[in-house]
Amino acid sequence: NHPPALQILEIILTALSENNFPKANNGLSITFDYSSDNCRASLGGSLEKFIIYANNPTFGFMIDCDEWSIEKVGTIIAGSPTRVSIDVCVYMCNVYSFLQ
Asked: Would you tell me how many other CB atoms lie within 10 Å of the CB of residue 56?
């Protein structure tokens, strides 16, 4: 039994915003744990390689951000007797980093 996609997104964004709490790269470790097998394989299959990859401009701005918000949530496709419900994982997020 897994948490719904929105809850996973909130867990990941919170962990990334506090990336080095309670230990170094904890947020990236949590993000890696929730990633798919295909994602992990494409990045070399190890947390260490994922951490190196994550410091790119597209992904890196979420690490240690000061604030984030979810602006739009996708729909949920109802389950049936032979299939569980599916969260359509299309989320619009705002992430802010303020210069000190």
From this structure: 9
